[in-house]
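Person: I have long wanted to understand how a fold can be written as tokens. Underneath my words sits a plain record pairing an amino acid chain with its backbone structure tokens. Those tokens are not coordinates but codes from a learned vocabulary of shapes. I should like you to check that the lines agree and flag anything odd. The protein I mean follows directly.
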Amino acid sequence: MSTLILALAAGAVIGLALGVLGGGGSVLAVPALIYLLGFTPAAATTASLIIVSATSATALYTHATSGNVRWKTGILFAAAGIVPAMAAATLATRLPEAVLTAAFAAVAALAALRMLKPPHAEQQPRSVRPARAAGAGAGLGAVTGFLGVGGGFLAVPALVGVLGLRMRAAVGTSLLVITVNSLAALAAHAGTSTPLDWTVIAPFAGAAILGAWDGKRLASKISGPALQRIFAIVLLTVAALMLTDALH
């Protein structure tokens, strides 16, 4: 199979993940770039940030037009997590790669199991307290900075479980967090000399953007609990694959 077809197929899947689930792009993009398209880990990380930034911004726009973005909550989440993410990323450079991979798998599995719990009685949307949102965002930033991912797969459970957002609002708001975090991380990589293959990145990103548009339409046809189950299954699958990789 040609590199172009692989890039288009992988991009479409990642775009759908971002559009439907509000996460999964940064988790899926790096393995796809490394194992399917032959990127080095360093180049895959930078390329992933470019792809996820563009795709999440597109998906954010489509969710915002439907009123599914809590801007105040998302901005507090993203802003509060920037400094903790940088500090945690510095700490992560001093640990073995296998330890970080195993930690990522554990956190992803815990988040998935939490979302698989039987839903409680429908709650009225609670008002968002700035201190609570900022505290959760700082914790999320520290975890995502430590594990080196965009954070959408953790943002959705946090927005649902900690701040009590409905699933669709959590998905839309998480895209704001992903966009800001990805752009901040990309800025940190701007000074590096890592070579990038734009003949792969451009079609990958283009397919991902189109997938994000389709994912938004699909999300509007699926119930909140169904979205939670799909998201949890994706997280468990990623966790199992990464734990297997860490143990080899």
Summary: The mean pLDDT is 79. Residues 133 and 179 are 17 Å apart (CA to CA). The two ends are 28 Å apart (CA to CA). Residues 41-65 form the longest helix (25 residues).
